[in-house]
Amino acid sequence: MCGFSGELRTDGLPADGAAVARMAEAMQRRGPDGAGLYAQGPIALGHRRLKIIDLSDRAAQPMVDPELGMALVFNGCIYNYPELRRELSQHGYRFFSNGDSEVLLKAYHHWGESFVHHLHGMFAFALWERDSGRLVLGRDRLGIKPLYLAETPGRLRVASTLQGLLAGGAVDTAIDPVALHHYLTFHAVVPAPRTILAGVRKLPPATLLIVEPDGRQRSHAYWEPRFVRDPDRAEWSARDWEDATHEALRTAVKRRLVADVPVGVLLSGGLDSSLVVGLLAEAGQHGLATFSVGFESVGGEEGDEFKYSDVIAREFGTEHRQIRVPTERMLPALADAIGAMSEPMVSHDAVGFYLLSEEVAKTIKVVQSGQGADEVFGGYHWYPPLLSVPDGDVGLDTYAQAFFDRPHAEMNAVVAPDHLLAADASREYVAAHFARAGADSPADRALRLDTSVMLVDDPVKRVDNMTMAWGLEARVPFLDHELVELAASAPPELHLADGGKGILKAVGRRVLPNEVIDRPKGYFPVPALKYLQGPYLDMVRDALTSPAAKQRGLFRVDYVDRLLDKAAQGDAELTPLRGNKLWQLGLLELWLQAHDL
Q1: How confident is the model at residue 324 (pLDDT cuts 50, 70, 90)?
Q2: Which residue from 186, 281, 460, 588 could staple onto 316, CB 3.0 to 4.6 Å apart?
Q3: How far is it, in rounded angstroms, from Cα 567 to Cα 444?
């Protein structure tokens, strides 16, 4: 796990190695264990390393293979690299390191662009062919690892973080009005390739982008799960689906143990992370390190779920640590967490993951986490209504009513005229996604959208940014692509049984105590932030009424004033998903100011 940067010149000029080095240095926290720079003619590649596999300098990056004529920078982990290494050795390849980076490089040389189909893992990479001058960029199937791009005439820059691109300079930091519409409507999700900044794009998940030395580009998506019923499984019973899911989950958690350092688990006490612990114990892992975080109660609302994580820790004999965060730590940590965001993320649990990661990283470098299960296995409340929409209805209205933060008609009251869109860009985006082939029903369409878009640009990105801010690698077994393919092929009514995540709960009953499975659905509780009172309200007010915000002019002043007045009276205007509309505006402005934009 690391951070990388790069520049390719397509105008005949040499790449700016100094800029690429600045970009890499801006990601030092993603890779505190080493740094490297490679520059040759039109290409420059920079890297910050977090040592997880092959701790020696032989696995340092940028990795250059003079014999094959290639250079590579890579962020992530290829879980099946030992098997691939053995296969490539049989084809005559010689290895100078013992890690997964060199396996990725030689796999590309052997299989060409189809090499991605051989990879099990999370990854983003930039690979340069010396002789052809071609640059190949890629991202894993579920977008677990990020890859940002900034293009100007004659030059393409790439980085693992948006902050890395900014450190290189010459980025158009104007607000993208379509992205702003998504942010304010699509629950703060800005789908790839857009970001909130007009001059920065992100490579979509499961995508290869090939850039020729003259600047010509071509890209293609190499994977997409099909949310359709498999005829070969038409006779499967509910028990058959449970058996297959149990086995696929076993494989997923075992794959994510590959490392030359210990691997722990972030244990919230919910079904998902508890299953990870239970399956690791089932696989023979003893003395597993587990970690939970909790906050002080506010307004009578509990700020931790230790009673559930303690049950799992006792059941499986883990070396468990409760991390209690006093309220006074929250405010400075919130500012730091916002600074660590590659894109603005409104979810309250970002600061929770940030503080948890800070403590966990003091004792361990790799953890498994339960993110993704709600999207992959149907755990959200907006899925069940989609089972009963009339025939011929794609389900767009039902989904939008539950998930969208505000209707397009409300935008006139929120967004200043200079940033206002006439078209309902967010509804158009979801409508186009729902209209694509490969999903059998309205529920399937929503599950596909959330798995391939919302999951990528909300919880998965949040976990990556907050853990990597402390040099902590988070692995997400529920996003094993074979597990996702299996879940996508299951009938939605099985997923939505038992109050949601029916198949997963059935697997859980084989492994876990029932009290963890039958508990009320929980979220990362951060009450002090949820209620937006006291210093948190002051922080938001200062940001939204600052000279920088007034000069930017994103939002209508009367709308901001009304939300601030309501908050001062202890009231809050909420979205259908119970998000605070004032926090949504304030977080965006705080993020822009944190990055001097």
Answers
A1: confident
A2: 281
A3: 38
Cα of 271 vs its chain's centroid, Å: 20
User: b/e map of 274-306 (b: 16 or more CB within 10 Å)?
Assistant: bbbbbbbbbeebeebbbbbbbbbebeeeebbbb
CB within 8 Å of 224: residues ≥ 6 apart: 206, 438, 452
CA distance 106 to 79: 16
> How far, in Å, CA of 449 to CA of 99, rounded?
34
* Phi, psi dihedral angles at 253 (to 5 degrees): -75, -35
For range 92-110, the mean pLDDT:
97
Give the whole-angstrom CA distance, residue 26 versus residue 484.
34
Record the tokens describing residue 302, joined without a space: 């509990």
* CA–CA separation, 301 and 526 (whole Å): 9
> Is the whole model's pTM more than 0.85, yes or no?
yes
How deeply is 573 buried, as exposed, middle or buried, from its count of CB atoms within 10 A (0-12, 13-18, 19+)? middle
How many Å apart are CA 571 and CA 552, to the nearest integer? Answer: 27
> Chain-wide mean pLDDT for the chain?
94
Q: With 70 as the cut, is the pLDDT of residue 526 above it?
A: no
Tokens for 2? Answer: 């690391």
Nearest alpha-carbon partner for 110 in 84, 72, 128: 84
Please confirm whether the linkage preceding 231 is cis (ω < 30° from 0). Answer: no
Which residues on adjacent β-strands are paired with residue 379?
Answer: none
Would you say how long the chain is, in residues?
Answer: 597
Distance in angstroms (rounded) separating the CA atoms of residues 358 and 446:
34
**In angstroms, rounded to a whole number, what is the distance separating the alpha carbons of residues 577 and 354?**
23
CA gap 200, 150 in Å, rounded: 5
Written as six digits, the tokens of 209 are: 């982008």
Peptide bond into 193 cis (omega under 30): yes
Relative orientation angle of helices 581-594 and 177-185, to the nearest 10 degrees: 140
CB 146 within 8 A of CB 124: yes
Q: What is the DSSP letter of 206?
A: T
Residues 6+ away with beta carbon under 8 Å from 562: none
For tokens 């975080």, name the residue.
293
CA distance 215 to 260: 39
Task: Give me 530's structure tokens.
Answer: 């949820």
